[in-house]
Write a structure and sequence with these properties.
This protein starts with 9 loop residues before the first helix and ends in an 8-residue tail after the last helix. It has one domain. It has 2 helices and no strands. The longest helix has about 50 residues. The protein is elongated. It is mostly helical and about 80 residues long.
């Protein structure tokens, strides 16, 4: 004869869900740590690429910063173009 489904008490259900929650929280924390590691790796890769390009250009970091600031200022305050 087939047996029916076991009926769990409320305390058993609560304990089961607490245990499952703890497991999922640990998994979530591990995923967050992995994400943080991958983001750091990506940032390091991008910085290495940027450094390589900077060296190949023969410019210093200070020169690049000055260039970018000038470009940003020009974009914020474009000079009036002469009217035709």
């Amino acid at each position: 004869m087939p047996r029916g489904r076991k009926r769990y008490s409320l305390d058993e259900k609560i304990a089961s869900l607490l245990e499952l929650t703890a497991v999922r929280e640990k998994e979530l924390e591990e995923l967050k740590n992995e994400l943080k590691t991958l983001r750091r790796q990506k940032e390091q890769t991008e910085l290495s690429e940027l450094n390589k390009l900077l060296k190949e250009s023969g410019r210093t970091a200070a020169e690049l910063v000055a260039f970018l600031k000038e470009r940003e200022a020009a974009a914020e305050h474009p000079e009036k173009s002469p009217e035709p």
